[in-house]
Amino acid sequence: MFSIPGNMKGEMEAPLLDIQNLRVELLLRRGILTAVDDVSFRLREKESLGIVGETGCGKSMIALSIMGLVPSPPGRASGRILFEGVDLIRKKERELRRIRGREIAIIFQEPLTALNPAFIIGEQVAECYRVHFGHSKRTAREGAEHILDLVRVPSPKQVMKLYPHELSGGMRQRVMIAIALACQPKLLIADEPTTALDVTVQAQILELLEELREKMKLAMIFISHNLGVVAHLCDRIAVMYAGALVEVTDVESLLQPLHPYTLGLLDAMPLPEHRDEYLKALPGNICDLIYPPSGCKFHPRCFKAQEICAQERPGLEMKPLDHAVACFFPVYHEPS
Amino acid sequence: MLGPDQRDPEQYEALRKELGFDQPLYVQYLSWLDRVAHGDLGQSLRSKRPVLNVILERYPATVYLAVTSLLLGILIAIPAGTLAAVKQNTGYDYGAMIFALFGISVPNFWFALLLILTFGIYLHWFPTIGYVAPGVDLIRFFQCLVLPAAVLGTDVASATTRYIRAEMLEQLRLDYVRTARAKGLPSRFVLYKHVLKNSLTSAITIVGLHIGRLLGGSTVVETIFGWPGLAKLVLDSVYARDYPVLQGAVLFLALGYVIINLLIDLIYKWLNPRMRLG
Amino acid sequence: MLRNRLATLGLFIVVVITLLALAAPWLASENAFRMNLADRLAGPSHGHILGTDTYGRDIFARILLGASIAMQVALTAVSVAFIIGVPLGGIAGYMGGLFDTAVMRLIDALLAFPGRLLAIALVAATGTSFLTLCAAVAVNAIPGYTRVIRAAVLMQKDKEYVEAARMNGESGARILFSEIFPNCLAPVLVLVTLDFAHAILLESSLSFLGLGFPPPAPSWGLMLSEARGYMEIAPHVAIFPGLAISLTILGFNLLGDGLRDVFDPRQYER
């Protein structure tokens, strides 16, 4: 039905992460909410993919399904999530535990609530070493100090003795990154890591992530609703709407988006060049995920919508120059 | 001697003077306070022994009973409440809730009588009355302790289970649990280490609330089982109208209660780092 | 689901007990006191549904009358607590300031002491009688009302309709009674129900300890106390009154919980 967008640099290496037809449904009283609707993509080692979309479009659900953390009632994940060739959806909890934190790690949006308020930082970081490597208390502590230093936490020895509420937001997020990277995972998933932070701190964290990505040769999935943030850090970007991928390509190509939704997102970004113009907001709201519109889910808000858009769903198709889009009437740009 | 019926008017007056009852009430109270401040709690009207001695003799029994009951209660409530929270809305959960409900509704003196009937009279497992100091005969001491501690312990347990369940449910909802699982920690480990520590603070507060219940319940339990503690002393002195002893015992109990609450506040502060910084 | 069923069960029990309590003086007062020493400590039989006690009195009749006693004490005590606690809390909440602080401190002091001990001390000081018993129970219950009403008043105090009434020139007392109190009804109702449960428990405890009604009053607690000596030969004398107490308290507790669920929809436990 559609082709899977991959990194077509001519090689057919086995991807680190291969998601095939992932579907996540939540059984609610009102009906079945389709949070992730038939999503497929691939990620190679050391590659970074950004997933962008409005709140509620399902990006976080993808992250949780990879980790096997979808709350099981009411959630239900189907499809295949192949990590190094092994299907994670089929894995039992015990086996997933070995992968979590060790091969795949995740950092969340709000570090204050994500950290346990009752334990000191040192304990929470050292825990990773003890659980995954069986290190002694002392070795684990040394490891914790080392990784805290790596994420540029000043005076790690002192900070290790503090509680989460005694640190600033930026510091807490560094700690979360330290915890995530402690066991040197191959894949890091960052779910809106900078959304809750000040702008200046945001920049610092993004810089840190870039540096660590280089140093530790991480593959990364960066989830955000902010295109600007993602463009900075990622090789490729996937745009999601109402649980489905609508456009996947590399950062440069995205500046000339094919999908009307992506165009809307770009237009809605406040840029200094357009200072004197009104902000162009996308009309309408995200659709109902339990009873989505027929055909293309975006068509009620689309300025290019035509009859066929309400009748059939466009699949994700690969266009020239490694640019995938799910639209019957993609936007064409004049060659500049 | 203290009965209002048999008295000879002269003797009565003499006694009144001796006990200072002819003074106005507030003067009596103040002079009592003064004596207490100097460590003199007066003399038992019944036995003529210093009240302080009587109290010191009897308070260990109450302490043993109270501590054992509390421990028992907590040991039951924590696993019960946790299980109910983790397996919410299943058989375990309903079972725990019913247990809690019955605990609140069944009066402890009746429960005590039922226990005596079953374990003491029919099964002959435990003595139904009596007390032996632990120094004298440890085994016998524990045998006598079982039934009264069971009554008070289940009292504490049933009320605490509800709270622990609610607290656990609250904690399991929070983000840090998700982070812990994302780290790859096994879920039982997460439960016991991470969640429990956070739930403990509220559990301690609840326990603090129960100290009062425990003291109140002790009066009944100590009476039924003939356990010679302070609560029973209070009752005995009420029956015998031995007011000095009554005042002294109540004072002691009140003081103990205040001190324990203070300790609980301190423990709470220690367990909850957020409060430490104020 | 289960919650609803339990609450209805509670309502059923409460209604039955109330009816029994009302009917008891007519149905049972004779039998409850008629002694028949030849027939003492007999088990349940045709003549005596629940058997007889140590004086040959019919236990069933005594339990019926005991219901009446328990409900009378509970009703009086809770009413007293209500009459004293509600205005106190209402005025404290509305006026604020020194009065408020004073009242709250007093309440705190009252609450600081374990309830049963307080009751015992009170009875010890003033002797055993119906009034003392009610007073002891009432004192335990007053803080609850004061706090609940005060909290509710504080919540409503700054709302617009209060402002509007004040501008209309209505006096504080009127506002309090006609505007604010009707909105506080819900938590108070829950409290009343639960307080009935507490009252019955306290009354039976005190009677058990001999600090309540003197014999031969058929107070449930007293019946249990009297049964202690004969448990080996006649356990039924100890079982039935206790069952009566437990069921009654259970009923009120279930009803109170059910009412609380109805009025406070934030129950995410279920």
Give the helices and strands, then pairings:
The complex is a heterotrimer of chains A (about 325), B (about 280) and C (about 270).
Chain A: E1 17-27, E2 32-43, E3 48-52, H1 59-67, E4 75-83, E5 86-87, H2 93-99, E6 104-107, H3 111-114, H4 121-133, H5 137-150, H6 156-159, H7 169-181, E7 187-191, H8 199-216, E8 219-224, H9 227-233, E9 236-241, E10 244-250, H10 251-254, H11 260-268, H12 307-311, E11 317-319, E12 323-325
Parallel strand pairs in A: 3-8, 3-9, 6-7, 7-8
Antiparallel strand pairs in A: 1-2, 1-4, 4-5, 9-10, 10-12, 11-12
Helix pairs in contact in A: 4-5, 5-7, 7-8
Chain B: H1 9-19, H2 25-37, H3 51-86, H4 91-105, H5 108-122, H6 138-172, H7 175-182, H8 187-224, H9 230-239, H10 243-271, H11 273-276
Helix pairs in contact in B: 3-4, 3-6, 3-8, 3-10, 4-6, 5-6, 5-8, 6-8, 7-8, 8-9, 8-10, 9-10
Chain C: H1 2-33, H2 59-95, H3 97-112, H4 115-126, H5 130-157, H6 160-167, H7 172-208, H8 220-227, H9 236-263
Helix pairs in contact in C: 1-2, 1-9, 2-3, 2-5, 2-7, 3-5, 4-5, 5-7, 6-7, 7-8, 7-9, 8-9
Task: Give an overview in words.
- Helix content of chain A is 32%, strand content 22%.
- By secondary structure, chain A is of the alpha/beta class.
- Chain A has a single domain (2-103, 185-325), classed as P-loop containing nucleotide triphosphate hydrolases (Rossmann fold, 3-Layer(aba) Sandwich), CATH 3.40.50.300.
- In chain A, the strands form 2 sheets. Chain A has an 8-stranded mixed beta sheet with strand order 6-7-8-3-9-10-12-11, with helices on both faces.
- Chain A starts with 16 loop residues before the first strand and ends in an 11-residue tail after the last strand.
- Chain B has a single domain (49-277), classed as MetI-like fold (Orthogonal Bundle).
- Chain B has helices at residues 9-19, 25-37, 51-86, 91-105, 108-122, 138-172, 175-182, 187-224, 230-239, 243-271, 273-276.
- Chain B is elongated.
- Chain C has 270 residues and is mainly alpha-helical.
- Chain C has a single domain (60-268), classed as MetI-like fold (Orthogonal Bundle).
- Chain C starts with a helix and ends in a 7-residue tail after the last helix.
- Chains in contact: A-B, B-C.
- The B-C interface holds B 89, 94, 101-102, 104-107, 109-110, 113-114, 116-117, 121, 165-166, 169, 211-213, 215-217, 219-220, 223-224, 234-235, 238-239, 246, 250, 253-254, 257-258 and C 2, 112-117, 120-121, 123-124, 197, 201, 204-205, 208-211, 221, 224, 227-228, 231-232, 235, 238-239, 241-242, 245-247, 249-250, 253-254, 268-270.
